[in-house]
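HUMAN: Mind making up another protein with tokenized structure?

ASSISTANT:
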Amino acid sequence: MDARMWHRQATFTQTPLPDPVPVEQFDGLPPGEQDAYWTQLSEGLPALVVPSVLTARAEQRLDRLVAVNIRRPPGAKSVIGIDAPFAVGKSTFVKAWAQGAYRNRVASGAPEVLPTWTPEPELSADWVPQVYITLRAASKIKDINASILAFLGYPSEGLVRVTTTRVVKVLATHGVRLLIVDDVHMLTTTHADGRAVLDYLKFLNTELGELGATMILVGAHLESGPLYQDPQIVGRLDKITLTPYEITTVGGRADWQLFLRRLEELLLPYFDTLPTGTFSRELAGHVWRRTQGYVGDTVRLVTEAMLAGFDDAQDLMTRDLMQAVALSARAAASEADLLSAAAAPSNRRNRKQRADVS
């Protein structure tokens, strides 16, 4: 990933879905038009971005934390930590949020050309308000410097003190206001290099603070990792936790059904034989059992089941259609565990049987 790739991703315009065609009207179209419509649906629906209740709340808090950081005086500012279990979509979330903010901040222009600005009189430079890097296993300070410099298009060779000075300079030169460090859970402090990296992140946060910039650390299970063992970071850390949808509480079930209802609002116009409430009411429990509330698996399940039903000329959604959709290994294993637990004999029944025997 570098600044040009980030710019292309942020300014990329996705091919819109076709206007919905009612099923009866579709049946009367010439075969060529049917094939073209089907191709657009089958390619566009799996890439659909569905509004998520939980994600919207996280975005609102993220917006507020960044805005507060901007208003704070120069110096070390709050660090934002985005924490989530594996496969919830934390990287997807932060990239989508950041690139949306990028589009609002930077006129899109040509996707291959970075915008420019004038940081100092008679000095023109690429304007790169956001930097996104990923930590690798056993990363050292030189690796972080190399990632930042490569993102901004600079050579990364040299001693650590040289590349560190270069990093501080180019962050200012290119107007960086957001540094996203992904996969922070790869950081380990069991060796000296790991502890040095943790200290270096604190140093970078201070330098970014002088520019009015914010650092966002993204990772899995951060609370049990080294970030939460460092009092300086914990003292400045604002945590945002992403979770899958849960259905063990009244509020959780309401959120889950609201998410499915918004999914229906997007999809049912393309499958008008399905009544409203098919997923948000009738099949809400079944969808959750298959996906355990993970957004990516849910969108995949619903869109592929609907496409399969459309292709087979079925007017209603069935559990068989949904069961035929292959999901992630995580979802399949969790579903098997749920089914196994549901099939386990009741402890109450076992106790009654033992009492009858005695």
